[in-house]
Amino acid sequence: MRPLPAPLLLRPHALPFRPNAMMAGSLVPIVMADDEWFVFATLSAFATAGLRLGATRLGRAFSGPICAMALAFAAVGAGVLPAASPRVLHAQALAVRLATPMLLLRADLREVWRSAGQMLPAFLLGTAGTVLGTLGAIALLRPSLGGAFAAGEGAKVAWALAAKNIGGGINFFAVAGALRLSASTMAVALAVDNVMALVYFPMCSWLGRDERDPAAATPSSSGAPLEAALLRGECAGSSAATEQSACLTVALAVVAVSRQLARGSGHDIPLATLITVLLATALPRVFGRLAATGDQMGTLVLYLFFASAGWTGGALSSSFVASGRVLLHFLIALYSVHLALVGAVGALMRRHPSFQRFFSVPVLLVASNANIGGPATASALAVGSNWPSLVTPALLVGNLGYALATPLCLLLYSKSL
């Protein structure tokens, strides 16, 4: 039997880009900008700057991930960096693959059920809002999606974006790879989604500006975990070298095994998610010891993803004008339904004293952030808004989103055919 061709996500040099044309007008020489080490160095610089800015008063208002995204976005918009190139998408794919098992080492589903109970109903409400928003947007824009993309691409990109807005950017790549979404459509979708994110995340911070921590905890008594300090830009490097090495070994082993099992089908990231969740649930004492180190290292890698997302989002080319407008309308509809359902049901449930703690404004905002951006942005919002009691639940439901979104959206896509 002839083997299936590897998806474009796994073959960055086959991506349908014209780097020389897309880099025209950039202040960076073409040869340098097309070098993978230059791309990683640049993304690392933006990631580091985002971490540092996240510790400032202004940065806390937007969160470290958004700072990293905005810096890269501005650099591309100002012409300092070229528009998105195959190297940037390759860096995104590598960051997603490596971060996935690292961030899921604490994804013991039994612990999620026990410790994230306060936020779980709000997170599931946000998940329902995203699914309903996706179904409504597809029904409303079906002719436009069909006309703007090649046959079948419209539904694929719609459910890839749905997965992203249930559990974060890792799920976008997982669904896009599994469905063999073309690289050009991926680039446009990421550009539009990150433009929306640059509006959504600051809006969440503004909406929660006057809200107190639901537990009324003080910073000195909150016991904020290592992840919170990292997201504030206060990485202390407290993990032992042996734990870091073990964490890296586990992550690379999971990636290697998932790649072998996928055999070029594009399902390696969903398989890596499943393998890690099963290991974390079956052997919580073993992998739980590496969880803090995995969160630290995984978040650092994820910041490279945020920076690359900003770089891609700044590439507002003619392809964005042609098909990006349709996706912009799609995401406006998706976000509107998501926020309307979260806000309306949350307000209704808060009227009942027994449900108030599950649907307070801070809980709803952090849970929605976990849907749209994943655990890193959700935790960053909790830290920046001085809601320390919500940091750990944000991480747990965010990890649940990593585990839930990809299989759910692949299932819904298959049912929609």
TrEMBL record:
Transmembrane segments: 37-55, 62-83, 89-107, 119-141, 161-179, 186-208, 269-288, 300-321, 327-349, 361-384, 390-413
Keywords: Membrane, Transmembrane, Transmembrane helix
Pfam families on file: DUF819
PANTHER family found in the cross-reference section: DUF819 DOMAIN-CONTAINING PROTEIN (PTHR34289:SF8), PROTEIN, PUTATIVE (DUF819)-RELATED (PTHR34289)
Protein name per its UniProtKB record: Uncharacterized protein
